[in-house]
Amino acid sequence: MNWTKFFIAFIATWIFIFVFEWVFHGMLMHDSYAATSALWRPQTEISMPLLVAGQGVIAFFFTMIFVRGFGSGGGLGGGLRYGILLGLLGCGANIIQYAVQPLTTNILSAWCIGGVIEMAIGGLIVGALYKPGTAAA
Amino acid sequence: MNHKRGFLAFIVAFVFIFFFGFVWHGILMKPMYNATSALWRTEPIFPILILGHAVLAFAFTGLYVSKVGINSAGVGFGYGIVIGIFACGVNIIRFAVEPLTTNILFMWFAADLICFAIMGALVGAIYKPAPTG
């Protein structure tokens, strides 16, 4: 395993997830969340360190699964397919959340579409950046 | 890819995750959800709940079959643990933005780790790559 490339891919994915979610959830979906405010913490109570830590855990294991799963590296195409499948996994969790929580269908649709796009781009980033180390002779 | 074995693994994963969720969330965690009832629907929408579990089981199995593809309960167990930790990251984010209790958060951590680890072991034990040659 090439730890240097892994670390670069992990950091790039973490930054991407942070920026994507800041734009997607913090700006694009702001009105949808405002309309269901009883379900969310008030802005002042949202824990940014926890939010960023959660994104870090996701980015780390997103990269780790790719690296471990592919071994020799999947490239851009492999990364894209991998990201779409993990995005679908997240979409399943979103559908379950919708079934038990009074979210709107707009929020559910946006989460599913946004989640698949986010993970697909994350897969492209990891696929482009991670290259396996040279095997010892 | 062995589609027959993959489909069988998906069905087993789906049945397992549904019953695990029923016991863990529907019975064990019921008092915790009652204490935060403003956050939840009074009754779940069952067809949607089942659909969500099916999508989750499909993606979980699909990822294993297409990217790992080994007939091994041990490898599947490890795969499930890593996916479980990945899901814990999602739980941390939910806790950061939703007024959940720490009890719920820790129970969700445990649920995801246990559920995905067992599900991974099941999928790994059932899936066999198609014979070559």
Give a structural overview:
- The complex is a heterodimer of chains A (137) and B (133).
- Chain A is mostly helical.
- Helix content of chain A is 77%, strand content 0%.
- The radius of gyration of chain A is 17 Å and the shape is globular.
- Chain A starts with a helix and ends in an 8-residue tail after the last helix.
- The mean pLDDT of chain A is 89.
- With 133 residues, chain B is mostly helical.
- In chain B, helix 1 packs across helix 3 and helix 1 packs antiparallel against helix 5.
- The radius of gyration of chain B is 16 Å and the shape is elongated.
- The two termini of chain B are 13 Å apart.
- The mean pLDDT of chain B is 93.
- At the A-B interface, helix 3 and helix 4 of A face helix 3 and helix 4 of B.
Mass-distribution shape of chain B: elongated
Strand content of chain A: under 5%
Q: Uncertain regions of chain A: pLDDT < 50 for 5+ in a row? A: none
Give a quick account of the main beta sheet of chain A: strands, pairing sense, barrel closure: none
Count the DSSP helices of chain A. Answer: 5
Mean pLDDT of chain A: 89
What is the CA-atom radius of gyration of chain B, in angstroms? 16 Å
Query: What average pLDDT do the residues of chain B reach?
Result: 93
Name the biggest interface.
A-B, 44 and 42 residues
Number of H- or I-type helical stretches of chain B = 5
Question: What is the radius of gyration of chain A computed over CA atoms, rounded to a whole number of angstroms?
Answer: 17 Å
What share of residues of chain A is helical?
over 70%
Shape of chain A: globular
Helix content of chain B: over 70%
